[in-house]
Amino acid sequence: MGTNKKIIIAGPCAIETKAGLFSVVKEIHDKVDVIRGGVWKARTSPNDYAGKGEEALKWINQIQKKYNILFAIEVGTKDHVALALKYNVRIFWIGARTTSNPFAVQEIAETLYNTDTEIWIKNPIFSNLDLWFGAVERVRLNKIRKIKAIHRGFYCESEKTYRNNPRWDLLDKFKLQYPNIPVICDPSHITGDKKLIFNISKKAIQKNINGLMIEVHHNPENALSDKKQQISPKEFNKLLEKLNLK
Ligand code: PEP
Ligand code: MN
Questions:
Q1: Which of 16, 41, 101, 152 to mutate to test the pocket of ligand 1 (most atoms within 8 A of CB)?
Q2: Nearest partner of 230 among 7, 2, 15, 6, judged by Cα
Q3: In-domain check, residue 138
């Protein structure tokens, strides 16, 4: 990876249908390094869409082969990891809710002990760096060498411009602690609003971030999760052009 080459990760918040997933991938695969998509969604309400589960893993396996591209998914339990490995998923991220759960992080890391799989660790919801560091340490202690961190913003009671407040100061501290761990910025979950994604992406690039993870949906207005922040493939292409990345 060259110093200025950004890793671009994009795809839907949640995988919903085979046709929807394949249509978005068809339009963005040649502009990204990794496709993302939620298979199991950690929803606040049990009545909200929770993901397609194993069925989506089959589609992911097909996409990885068809386009010769890697696909990253969120895992929250060791069972998620074990099942996804059977469908050749090799990049897992730990979501903001899970990062602060030592039992879950420990189990996920042990399941991937001493393997070449990648784990990306999102910052925890609350602005406590020790929780983020602790999750990184658990993964490292399990001899997982390919680690990335994701800045997805932090919950803030008083500041409501963003869905999750970007904390560039905490990011700087993270980089000081782990200078060799690449950091990805997730402007979709920071902003919660597609209109703000460009500005946060730009800021992240100024902060010398190593990559961007953006939620792209084939039909954002009707997405079953995070619809205000998801952008269409067309909008994604325009965003990349404006950012002058590819
Ligand atoms: C996601 O990336 O789809 C997600 C749920 O993110 P977070 O864990 O940052 O809320
Ligand atoms: Mn989302």
A1: 152
A2: 15
A3: yes
Which pLDDT score is estimated for 1?
A: 44
pLDDT digits (tens, 9 = 90+) for 86-96: 999 999 999 99
Look at residue 3 in the predicted model and tell me its pLDDT. 55
The helix (run of H) or strand (run of E) holding residue 23 is: helix 18-28
Domain-embedded: residue 24: yes
Orientation of helix 197-206 relative to helix 233-243, angle to 10°: 40
**1 part of a folded domain:** no
Mean pLDDT of 41-56: 96
CATH number where 161 lies: 3.20.20.70
Distance 105 CA to ligand 2 centre (A): 20
| pLDDT > 60? residue 2 | no
